[in-house]
Write a structure and sequence with these properties.
Blueprint lengths: L2 H9 L1 E4 L15 H12 L8 H18 L10 H14 L1 H11 L14 E5 L7 H7 L4 E6 L2 H14 L4 E5 L2 H4 L9 E7 L4 H8 L3 E11 L4 H13 L2 E9 L8 E8 L13 H4 L3
Parallel strand pairs: 2-3, 2-5, 3-4, 5-6
Antiparallel strand pairs: 1-4, 6-8, 7-8
Helix pairs in contact: 2-3, 2-4, 3-4, 3-7, 9-10
């Protein structure tokens, strides 16, 4: 590992959390978010069914998000039900196409559970923990890394992971451009996912250097991302990947149908990518 990567790795805040007994987590005083989560998981065939404990965890996440949102800018949404429809359900809806694509194109270990492989996944630009924290709750066999550069958001993520009692989450405080150039993280994840971070050309440079050859890059996009995706084809190919599919996912939120853009990592990303912090956004590939 280069000196730069050693310095970067030592300064990055990687936080590990012990398991907390779910029975000690207080139940939500209001059932709005919990009821919405339970209704969604039972009625939408695109997602797995949540257990009562997972539903309670999501309810606790939503309430904590709104409490912290009064002190810092985590979301423009201020009502529990709207957080569920615009954020949580959107995140849950990504799980089915992600699992299906991974099972079809990326499985390499015969002993993995086909329905719940032990994925090593990074949520790039995690922000309020979307979709990474929702994935961690819904898929406890997955190892989730929340990559977030802002310290105050990392403090929030640390608090909510601790409060919910998630043992499968790590928080990495670093820019994606730096993490992608460090041997500890470069091409080490089965899947990189990003939601509401940047346009596809920029997002590809943030995410693909972190994905192992044979892994997936999943971008959560809007109803009609075809033009954005087409403009990113050259960048995606340059970074060692190809577009696998654009998968429509139904959202119960006001924005309606959404799209999961799924890319397959075919070969190693050239060493010069990602470029220095800020360059991908200023000069997209």
């Amino acid at each position: 590992m280069s000196l730069w990567c050693k310095q970067m790795a030592s300064s990055a805040a990687v936080l590990h959390f012990p398991f907390f007994n779910l029975s000690k987590i207080p139940r939500a005083r209001t059932v709005t978010a919990a009821a919405a989560a339970a209704s969604f998981s039972s009625s939408n065939p695109q997602t797995l069914t949540l257990t009562p404990a997972q539903t309670d965890q999501i309810s606790l996440y939503v309430r904590t998000l709104l409490q912290w949102n009064q002190r810092m800018n985590l979301t423009a949404v201020t009502e529990e039900g709207e957080v569920m429809t615009r954020h949580v359900e959107d995140s849950l809806a990504l799980i089915s196409p992600l699992k299906r694509s991974y099972a079809s194109h990326c499985r390499s270990r015969a002993d993995d559970d086909e329905d719940a492989p032990s994925l090593n996944l990074v949520d790039v630009g995690s922000g309020a923990g979307l979709p990474g924290l929702i994935f961690a709750i819904a898929c406890p066999s997955w190892k989730i890394t929340l990559l977030e550069s802002m310290q105050k958001r990392c403090l929030y993520l640390e608090h909510v992971v601790d409060l919910i009692g998630l043992s499968n989450v790590e928080i990495l405080r670093e820019r994606a451009e730096n993490a992608g150039q460090c041997l500890e993280f470069r091409e080490s994840f089965d899947v990189a996912v990003a939601r509401a971070v940047a346009e596809m050309r920029i997002l590809a440079e943030y995410c693909l250097p972190l994905v192992r050859v044979g892994g997936l890059f999943v971008a959560a996009k809007g109803y009609d991302p075809q033009e954005e995706v087409k403009s990113a084809e050259k960048a995606i190919k340059l970074l060692g990947a190809s577009i696998l599919e654009l998968c429509s996912v139904e959202s119960q939120g006001p924005l309606g149908q959404r799209t999961a853009v799924i890319c397959l990592k075919n070969c190693a990303t050239p060493k010069k990518y990602p470029r220095l912090p800020g360059i991908p956004a200023k000069t997209p590939l």
